[in-house]
Amino acid sequence: MHGKTLKTLLGGAVLMAVLLLAGFAAPQWLLFTATKAIGYGIVALGIVVLMRGGVVSFGQGMVYCAGAYAAGLIAANWGLTDALVLLTIGGVTGIVIGAVVGPLIARYRGIFFAMLTVALSMVLYGVLVKMNQIGGSDGFNVPEPTFFGWPPDRDSADLALYCTAIVVAGVTAMLCRVYFDSMAGLMSRAVRENELRVEYLGTSVHRTMVLNFVVAAGFGGVGGALNGMALGHVDPLFSFWTTSGEFVFVAILAGPYSVAAVFVASIILELVRSFSNLYFPETWQLVLGAFLLAVILFLPEGIGSLWAKGRIIAPRTPRDDVTRSRAAEDRSTGGSRVATATRAARPTAKEPQA
Amino acid sequence: MDYLLTILVDGVVYASWLFIVALGLTLVFGVLRILNIAHGSFYALGAYAAASAVALSNGLGLPPALSLLAMLIASIAVAIAVAPFLERVVLRLFYGRDEVLILLVTYAVFLMLEDITKLIWGVTPYYVFEPRGLFGNVEVGSLFYVGYDLMLIVLAVVCGLAVWFGLNRTIIGKVVLAVIHNREISAAMGVNVARVYVLAFFIGVLLAALAGAYTAPLISVQPGISVSVIILSFAVVIIGGLGSIPGAAIGALIVGIARAAAVYELPEAEIFIVYLVMATVLVFRPEGLFQRAQVRKI
Hints:
CATH class of the largest domain in chain A: Mainly Alpha
CATH architecture of the largest domain in chain A: Orthogonal Bundle
Largest sheet of chain B: 2 strands, antiparallel
Helix content of chain B: over 70%
Strand order of the largest sheet of chain A: 1-2
Strand order of the largest sheet of chain B: 1-4
Number of domains of chain B: 1
Distance between the termini of chain B: 54 Å
Shape of chain A: globular
Order of helices and strands of chain A: HHHHHEHHHHEHHHHH
Order of helices and strands of chain B: HHHHEEEHHHHEHHH
Number of domains of chain A: 2
Radius of gyration of chain B: 19 Å
Number of strands of chain B: 4
Oligomer: heterodimer
CATH architecture of chain B: Orthogonal Bundle
Strand content of chain A: under 5%
Structural class of chain B: mainly alpha
């Protein structure tokens, strides 16, 4: 493992410990908001994984919902309420779905990828709304989770779940960083830059995309199970496309550079939502929309670019700097995949490619 | 036989207004390269504006037939109020960015328009049932249909032909096609690309608002109508192939008839049949039915 990766992981562990301690001093409402935001963040992290490979899923609600339903159904029917077990069940559900859907969907790109994922999540939504045995459009209540056999009382329940969420999110985030910096993870960036070149160099683009999709689906399932427990209730709206839109919102707000940024972005979304609900209950979507436009306009690469931009693993050489700035330029001009020999011939704006 | 006819007529009526929405969506995509989530909000704005306009025209004691005109004026008013501002002030800032990023920009616009609609018209449903009685009932086979519904089919055909004619048989249309083909060369040849963009976006918004206005009598106009329309019209243009007008027509027919068939045959599937159809089409035609092969550049 590279030293820089280790340093990031160490920083993450310290941050995790600080946040755990902070939980004991935080008021109840903040703990609940933070837990929910962490759940959202884990799902959005999956979208960031996909984004690094150049695709965006507008249907991550599908795995989010599936994870929540799987954990909720098992907790409600089998009485298995241990938080860690339920989170594992959520994650495994996501991974299984990802492994089935991934290979089929990995050959689509751009709008078509986004629309197919929307379609799949809306199919799940439609099925769940009609399944009256499990609550139909009302969903059902998830029993209070227990922690290694300890059923917390009313006061400590939020704190216990918050701590679990921090640990799970911390571990997920670190695994994610290890994946990003591994050979397989770096391949995503190459795929994003130019798929044909990657194929010509003898690696499978398809395999990278499927792997990303499965990882993202696993994260989605874990996030769903976590939020099902935090809210104490699951319903088909988990799979509705506007829910998925919020995950994409978080991912875009965070940007592809930093894992921690995803959770910061997620907290920001939850805080904007809570405060607008409090102060402008009629117009919180207006606030959210304006905020999103401002972010895309002024921070097109997300808040992560504020502190982790251009982060690379290989030792720096002058040549690297040139290629990196070119890659950045490519991205800022809309990722135009036209490779031209000279800069002068490079189009300044993305052309509708004939 | 009557049973099949019922499904067919219901499906085609459903397809007709869906086609008008999708036509605007596909036109805007063709010219501006924007897949506009906010398109559904324009539909909702059209429906609300029509509800107000019809109420106003009835309040003034005008003859009921004039309410049809009031709906037309309402949708034009929506397009004038929304299109130039959105295109020139908001969307212009994001041209040249990644397709998916622009998709998210329009999602933000959609969120804002949702609340603006609620601020203007409130959350209580509006019912505009008067215009629906204007055309009486029409007998098809042995069944009776509301004439107004069948009039929607005529409206859809008129809209489709008008856009096709405008694009292929007028000078302005040729200029628009040139911009679709290559924006930079068109600009170099002296085309005012910005004006073409505004025009195309205006017509796109107008079509969505028209569809909203003329379907208002069939539905209860309330918050949430935009959300369902967006995904439906997206499915239509994806099935047909982005940027293709015949594609939008075929896509709308497929979606409309599939939905009508599901309503009668398999009510459980009504909500998701459209997505199932879309996924199936994409499996066999990854870029939609009417998409031409694209040159890949290395």
